[in-house]
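Running this now, will post back.
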Amino acid sequence: MTQQLDFSALWPYWPELLAGLWVTVQLTLLATCGGLAIGIVGAAIRSGRPGWLSRLWGAYVELIRNTPFVVQLFFIVFGLPNLGLKMTAGEAALLAMVVNLGAYSTEIIRAGIQVTAKGQWEAGRVLGLSRSQTFMRVVLPPALQRIYPALVSQCIIVMLGSSVVSQVSYEELTFAASLIQSRTFLSFEVYLVTTGIYLLLSIAMRQLMMAAGRKWLGVTA
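Update: finished.
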């Protein structure tokens, strides 16, 4: 006996899926901006002179890269309140994604900086630029050009990882899909549609970020 697929039964639930998609898009946009900003700062610290701040940042990177994202999320949601730091599910989800992307992007950007010719630092000094100005204007742009595709891929991975935040009842796309499945019992149909939405979102995100990279950074890949 074969079961007939019934995608038409999902039509009344499209507003809920679209609402969940919009939450995922907003969460991804904010997490990407915050995570990349942290990554640039971290890469500058890790690429500078060795010191206590560099070692502390290195410990943060190793902690995040070697623990599951879901554990990091649960620690923020359930652990931090014991320290008096209470936040909503949305704030916790955003913080977890920013912290996670910040650690990974730190190492990706640092890899691009490490292969930068020493002469660029010297050129900055000759032009009378401070070390921070040399980093932002001379060293960072070509470093980002080299590692930009890897950075885009990491941002997409974090976006896909946002599905985990449904575990703390944050009403993003996966939460909406699970809620619809519990009402309709159309598991295959619901999650097939959700898979397609994530696939399209990933493709659109990659295309938009690569277009931005070509326009603002001169990325050719």
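Residues 8-217 form a domain with the MetI-like fold fold (CATH 1.10.3720.10). More later if anyone needs it.
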